[in-house]
Amino acid sequence: MTHLLALGLLAVDSVVRAWRIQLATWAAGGALSFRDAFRLNLYGEAASTLTPNRLGGEPARFLGLTAAGLRPVTALVAIGVEVASEWPVFILVTGALVVHYVPDWHDAARAWLSRHGAADLVVVEIAALVVLIMLWLLQRLARSGMIRHRVRRQWRVALAHVRRAPWWVLGAGALLTVASAVARAFILPALVWGRLDAPPFGVMFFGALALIHASLVVPLPSGGGGIELTFLSGFAGDFGPGRQVTLLLLWRFYTVIVLTVLGIYVLVRTHGVKVAKELFTVGWWRRSREPP
User: Domain range spanning residue 181?
Assistant: First the structure.
């Protein structure tokens, strides 16, 4: 029963994300079938899991959109609309986690600012300066021709379309993102549903929510083992001796392995091993081979 519930939540997560990219594609002026939407999300899930900083996710999804018949500019706009609806939710999730794990955060922040205001103001100014320098360098690269004119033009068109996206589309995309995140976070409590010795629901839910989103900031693929160590330390609940490892394996199986394996299979079968290799090596350092 618990496994069927976990699979059902995983199916809800996948269906909701397919609807979200369909909505974003419609807002971009294109049309995408549910089958293509579901398939390209599998591509993105597999590539995100196997590449550092999830760098392969968006190229894989772009491949899926263009393979479905969308023009490159339309595909870029669709991805941009989807990302624009995702990040506000990620910020809200971060805020909810801070409030949950640091209930006295406002008092700690006030004391921290009173003691370190001057020193940290310098850090903020340096960070702002670094951002300005990066923007200046990007502008110079674009003007010098190191970034191809066609690519620059497509990105400008895509950004303009994203800005013109209806507010209700972004709102609906944000609600679908919330549903997706909640469904995936519910998988861990579902695996121990009905057990009297299960950890408190809040510990499991917020712990799973934090660990799922930790892969966005951890540079190594799929958390690089850090997520597993954190789980085993009891961050998402203490399941008792002999069950902590079992719950970790089951939770990672349903939240990562199932969709990753399906994504690899569908991608290789549809586009071939060469394309899959290119996507799964995005972000990895590769030594350039000089001709003999």
Answer: 2-97+167-280
